């Protein structure tokens, strides 16, 4: 289905009139945006119907990706590009007197995720649809996404992200698909004709209402579904409720408590303690999603025995791991299967992805909380645990000492990762190194018991969003050189290698990078009033603020340069602009102090006429997907400097290399595989290896104070934190100072400082050789095909899910 510019204009003015009662000349950019959205939706709806119809009739296996987060970013440009209408729309809008960029800029960025894990889910949906694979997302329609960040006096301030304030043009409310989710109450066990049955009384009823978002594939006919659940109560419910309570105020309380469930996204917090509301959210997602899948399944198939042949459920970390006991509950209590049969079906349907090895990030829930909120689910988890421990005792006598560490329930806590491993048929890590650490250390005893479950699926990103859409000039240049097959087969990017040393091509690449830097410099000036030198090196560190991601190490390098320039104002160096973007969890004190340190350092340098000629620091507030799309194409240096072993994979690293930035990084997460691909000459690695870090943790032989005492450069940097040179308030940064010295620098910032500074020096020398630098840059782009989420999803499809592409037949 394609539209001519003429038809587009006609539809635009018709829709504008019916929706807003306005003529084109009077329309605001927002109204123009909504109108284009409505045109696209109509086109998408047809394909959507066809896709659903085809899936229903061809009976092939489908996958459901359960995730508490989907960090979609703006969808208009994706949908335009996917339906081949980008040029038509651009021209049509221009002829009608609008500017495409401005219209696209009207779209809210749905911030329904914290960071990488949520963004990964969004990339996966894009690849599923683009590869014509039958796969859907299942998540929560939070009323408020991740908070909006403002910087006030150098500090982070959080504001609510009410992304739904204008109608969201891509969603459709599906009232007819509403299901009920039950919380609390008691379970009565009764024997009925020789079988125990479980009756749930006095529960609180919550309505789960789905909102569907179409997920279109790149220039094909597939439109899959992202279903987001909203907790709602209707006034019609009042009569149900009042039978028990006869109290209008109780009803209002109930309504409030129901609506809270999908009210906001929890920020990923370093010191997070289990909160009842988060558990409610998790069960809400899982129960609504599974009931709906099972209902649909039973309409299509004669017996639930076929479940593992027809459906796979992937859980994005342990957050949705209650799918395991909930599926058991539905199969036992509703479908009346035996425990053994229900367990067989469940463990052949569910697969689990792990995203962290850090023990403090592995989820646990207090037994009492689960018992009270989800009494039947608790009974089932208890039984799973009993059976699992018995199995270990009988079948793995050598592991008897380990059982207490492997139990699902121990010391009053439920260990969700243990539940997820035991209840699924596949456990995957997200980069080779990460999977090896799971197998050989963090989950070693489980690997001994279930070696066949463990596998690696290195993360990927959609090159359509992160190159084709975010960096059109680079995309065109690549297509000019090697043709356009790379868009459908990103591995083809490898043919760019033959241009790595080609002077003419290098010059064009340099031109694109320079233009992107100029554009970013302009954007920075508009947003912050700061003028940055677009000829300086753009050195970028954008990701969530976490101790292990070591933004602090980057700041220490900057403070070190500061001292060097003060010592020697004529020092010969290539000017650099350090760009940061990061949100800290609202309760994460240390992370917020690091933000303050970055902004304070930025201000100090800006006020110093000598230093600011050579270095500049910019903190861009409210980092999100749209901001990333602006920054990444303009980046020279990609900072990926986590403490080795801590960053499971990272995906920013991949987005940067795809856009020709050079990585400075530790041998952590997917950096290791990036290095394997591009070779050691085309990446700057430094610091402790994962093995070193794990060894230090075991031996407890690291003493940060010794490093401090033995290294004058570090002392100078550290002392700036507390000697009043950064802040008049001499306690402002003392917490950072003591975390590094008295708390022994958990993330090895001091330990890695020297080798980081050395790597930065080497990097600068390389930058001084433009031909060599550009060769590195092109080599990185050429090898980035491996890191496309199309590759990742193909691996999940064949090695975990056993699903296959489906050609959508047109029914209209
Ligand atoms: C937990 C409890 C309460 C509130 C929030 C959370 C929570 C929310 C989000 C905990 C963790 C997350 C997100 C984790 C995450 O993004 N992990 C990242 O996953 C990426 C995709 O695989 C990897 O690339 C990153 O390395 C990993 O850090």
UniProtKB/TrEMBL annotation:
Predominant subcellular localization, coarse grouping: cytoplasm
Pfam families in UniProt: Phosphorylase
GO MF: glycogen phosphorylase activity; pyridoxal phosphate binding
Keywords, comma-separated and alphabetical: Allosteric enzyme, Carbohydrate metabolism, Cytoplasm, Glycosyltransferase, Pyridoxal phosphate, Transferase
Biological process, per Gene Ontology: glycogen catabolic process
Superkingdom as given in the UniProt entry: Bacteria
UniProt xrefs under CDD domains: GT35_Glycogen_Phosphorylase
EC number: 2.4.1.1
Cofactor: pyridoxal 5'-phosphate
Function comment: Phosphorylase is an important allosteric enzyme in carbohydrate metabolism. Enzymes from different sources differ in their regulatory mechanisms and in their natural substrates. However, all known phosphorylases share catalytic and structural properties. Allosteric enzyme that catalyzes the rate-limiting step in glycogen catabolism, the phosphorolytic cleavage of glycogen to produce glucose-1-phosphate, and plays a central role in maintaining cellular and organismal glucose homeostasis.
Protein name as annotated: Alpha-1,4 glucan phosphorylase
Species of provenance: Halalkalibacterium halodurans (strain ATCC BAA-125 / DSM 18197 / FERM 7344 / JCM 9153 / C-125)
């Amino acid at each position: 289905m394609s539209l001519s510019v003429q038809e587009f204009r006609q539809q635009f003015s018709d829709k504008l009139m019916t929706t807003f009662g306005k003529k084109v000349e009077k329309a605001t950019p927002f109204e123009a945006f909504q109108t284009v959205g409505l045109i696209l939706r109509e086109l998408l709806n047809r394909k959507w119907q066809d896709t659903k119809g085809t899936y229903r009739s061809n009976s092939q296996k489908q996958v459901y990706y359960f995730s508490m987060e989907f960090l979609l970013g703006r969808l208009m440009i994706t949908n335009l590009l996917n339906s081949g209408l980008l040029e038509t729309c651009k021209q049509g809008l221009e002829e009608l007197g609008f500017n495409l960029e401005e219209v696209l800029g009207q779209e809210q960025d749905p911030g329904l995720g914290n960071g990488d894990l949520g963004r990964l889910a969004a990339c996966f949906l894009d690849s599923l649809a683009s590869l014509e694979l039958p796969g859907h997302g299942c998540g929560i329609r939070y009323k408020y996404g991740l908070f909006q960040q403002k910087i006030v006096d150098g500090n982070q301030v959080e504001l609510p992200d009410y992304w739904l304030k204008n109608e969201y043009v891509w969603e459709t409310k599906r009232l007819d698909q509403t299901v009920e989710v039950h919380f609390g109450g008691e379970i009565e066990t009764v024997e009925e004709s020789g079988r125990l049955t479980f009756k749930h009384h006095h529960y609180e009823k919550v309505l789960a209402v789905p909102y569907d978002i179409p997920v279109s594939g790149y220039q094909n006919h597939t439109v899959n579904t992202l279903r987001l659940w909203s907790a709602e109560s209707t006034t019609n419910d009042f009569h149900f409720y009042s039978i028990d309570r006869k109290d209008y105020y109780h009803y209002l309380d109930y309504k409030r408590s129901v609506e809270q469930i999908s009210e906001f996204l929890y920020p990923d917090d370093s010191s997070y303690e289990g909160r009842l509301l988060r558990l409610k959210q998790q069960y809400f997602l899982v129960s609504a999603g599974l009931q709906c899948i099972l209902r649909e399944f039973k309409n299509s198939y004669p017996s639930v025995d076929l479940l593992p042949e027809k459906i796979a459920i992937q859980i994005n970390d342990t957050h949705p791991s209650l799918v395991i006991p909930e599926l058991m509950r539905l199969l036992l209590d509703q479908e009346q299967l035996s425990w053994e049969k229900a367990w067989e079906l469940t463990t052949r349907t569910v697969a689990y992805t792990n995203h962290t090895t850090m023990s403090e990030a592995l989820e646990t829930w207090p037994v009492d909380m689960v018992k009270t909120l989800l009494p039947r689910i608790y009974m089932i988890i208890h039984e799973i645990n009993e059976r699992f421990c018995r199995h270990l005792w009988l079948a793995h006598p050598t592991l008897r000492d380990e059982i207490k560490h492997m139990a699902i329930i121990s010391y009053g806590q439920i260990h969700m990762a243990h539940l997820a491993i035991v209840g699924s048929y596949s456990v995957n890590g997200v980069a080779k190194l990460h999977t090896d650490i799971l197998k050989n250390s963090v989950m070693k005893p489980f690997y001994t018991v279930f070696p066949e479950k463990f596998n690696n699926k290195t993360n990927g990103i959609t090159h359509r969003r992160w190159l084709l859409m975010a960096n059109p000039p680079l995309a065109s240049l690549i297509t000019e050189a090697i043709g356009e097959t790379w868009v459908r087969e990103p591995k083809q990017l490898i043919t760019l290698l033959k241009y790595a040393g080609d002077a003419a091509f290098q010059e064009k690449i340099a031109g694109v990078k320079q233009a992107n830097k100029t554009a970013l410099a302009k954007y920075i000036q508009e947003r912050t009033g700061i003028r940055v030198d677009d000829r300086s090196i753009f050195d970028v560190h954008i990701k969530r603020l976490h101790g292990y991601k070591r933004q602090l190490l980057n700041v220490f390098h900057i403070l070190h340069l500061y001292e060097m320039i003060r010592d020697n104002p004529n020092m010969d160096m290539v000017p650099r602009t350090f760009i940061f973007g990061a949100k800290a969890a609202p309760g994460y004190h240390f992370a917020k102090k690091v933000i303050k340190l970055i902004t304070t350092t930025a201000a100090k340098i800006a006020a110093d006429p000598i230093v600011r000629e050579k270095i500049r620091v910019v903190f861009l507030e409210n980092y999100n997907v749209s901001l990333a799309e602006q920054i990444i194409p303009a980046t020279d240096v990609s900072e990926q400097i986590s403490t080795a072993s801590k960053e499971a994979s990272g995906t920013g690293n991949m987005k940067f290399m795809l856009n020709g930035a050079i990585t400075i990084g530790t041998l952590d997460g997917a950096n290791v595989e990036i290095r394997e691909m591009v070779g050691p000459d085309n990446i700057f690695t430094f610091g402790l290896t994962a093995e070193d870090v794990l060894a230090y943790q075991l031996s407890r032989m690291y003493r940060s104070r010794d490093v401090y005492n033995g290294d004058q450069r570090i002392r100078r940097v550290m002392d700036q934190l507390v000697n009043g040179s950064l802040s008049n308030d001499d306690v402002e940064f003392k917490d950072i100072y003591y975390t590094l010295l008295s708390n022994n620098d958990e993330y090895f910032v001091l330990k890695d400082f020297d080798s980081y500074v050395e790597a930065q020096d080497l990097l600068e020398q390389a930058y001084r050789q433009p031909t060599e630098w550009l060769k590195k840059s092109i080599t990185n782009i050429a090898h980035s095909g491996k890191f496309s989420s199309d590759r990742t999803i193909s691996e999940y499809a064949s090695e975990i899910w056993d699903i296959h592409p489906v050609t959508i037949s047109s029914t209209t």
